[in-house]
Amino acid sequence: MKYFDWLKPGIYIKRWIIIGIIGGFLICIGIYPYISAFLNENLNSKNFYFVILCAGILIVAVSVWKAICSLLSLLEISNATELLSYKLREKDRLERGSKIVVIGGGTGLSVILRGIKKLTSNITVVVTTMDDGGGSGVLREDLGMLPPGDIRSCILALADTEEDMQELFQYRFKEGRLTGQSFGNLFIAALTGVYESFEKAVAKIHDVLAVKGRVIPVTAEDVTLCAELKNGEVIKGESKIAKGVLSSKSPIKRVYIEPSMVAPLDGVIPAIKDADIIILGPGSLYTSIIPNLLVNDIVDALTEVNSPKIYITNIMTQPGETDDYAVSDHIHAIQRHAGKKVIDAIIVNNEKMPDDILIKYKEDGAVPIYITRKEAKKLKKEGIQIYEDACADIKLGYIRHDADKIAEMITKITKN
Question: What was the pLDDT predicted at 185?
């Protein structure tokens, strides 16, 4: 009986496909006399074949229409007109949404973008381009191009494509010279070669993946991120900083870039100045967020606009970067490197993490970041609004931000 399970009642898609195939078969029979006429053959029963042809066309048309209606029923939409109306309303809502600029890099940034894109299609993501490790680092060294990893992740987060396409661009090769390299990185590298421009390659991939909003690198220049530790040691290279801190057991005093005078990419400053909301983070404090502020004119643009500037605090500390850091330590590190006040509000997770999940993190030296009443009171005196909520999401043993919850909190902040 298992061979007949496919025909069991469901949403009626399968039966309409079968009926459509039958209709196609009738069309083939009905069209025979016309082929015969073309071959100069005489048939006495053309009327019969004409009826068969019309019946086949009618059956195919009905089966296609019924199959579409069955699919629409999954969305609780009664007809194609309603579907079109729904799509147009949703598109209009997103296009009228707030202009949001998100600044940062890393996995955390791509996570929250999946929630923000439900609020608006007017999103500009400014991504750090100082990664020199992993697959991105290899491409940067071999091809002399900007590291594509963080940009690829953000583009995929904003893309409106099938899951299969998402998986394809995230796929990492497991054998040969390409081991550890992602298909998405290679695709961007290929487009860079075709158009002889990293910026044009990124723009092209927006079209390929139907991206809501745009993702742009903070600068097109080749920049090295450096860290000066409190013991005076200097570490050069983004991928080496955390390891260097852990091995020397000396925390980061400051980070800086070489060369020090770096221009932002065209479009970055206008996007910031035109934004209704500006978001920093989440992400690695010293290697994903602060590096963007070291690029010329970024801080000045942030301080010139009156739009709310929101910092999304990490849920866990990061070994080698923010060991033992409180929420205020993150804020003060950003303000110190910016040289000005660039944060108006912060989002902080207050959800208690399960002990069994925290065991793995504690083994690596990471602990949850919460805000105390005393610390909150102090930050409020500095003019920073605090928004706390349970905004953590645990999947496959990893703690991430809940994208939908973050989007909800951003909406709440902008209404206040």
Answer: 87
> Of the CATH numbers 1.10.10.10, 3.65.10.10, 3.30.930.10, 3.40.50.10680, which one belongs to the domain with range 97-128+255-415?
3.40.50.10680
Lowest mean pLDDT among 27-36, 147-156, 234-243, 357-366: 27-36
The larger pLDDT score, comparing residue 414 to residue 155, is at 155
**Reported pTM:** 0.78
Q: Are 215 and 151 in contact (CB under 8 A)?
A: yes
Q: Which residues contact 100 (CB under 8 A, 6 or more apart)?
A: 116, 119, 120, 122, 123, 124, 275, 276, 277, 278, 279, 410
52 neighbors 29 (Cβ within 8 angstroms)? yes
Q: What are the sequence ranges of the domains in the chain?
A: 8-90, 97-128+255-415
Give the whole-angstrom CA distance, residue 46 versus residue 27. Answer: 14
pLDDT at 303: 95
H or E element: which one contains 126? strand 123-127
Give the bridge partners for 214, in sequence order. 124
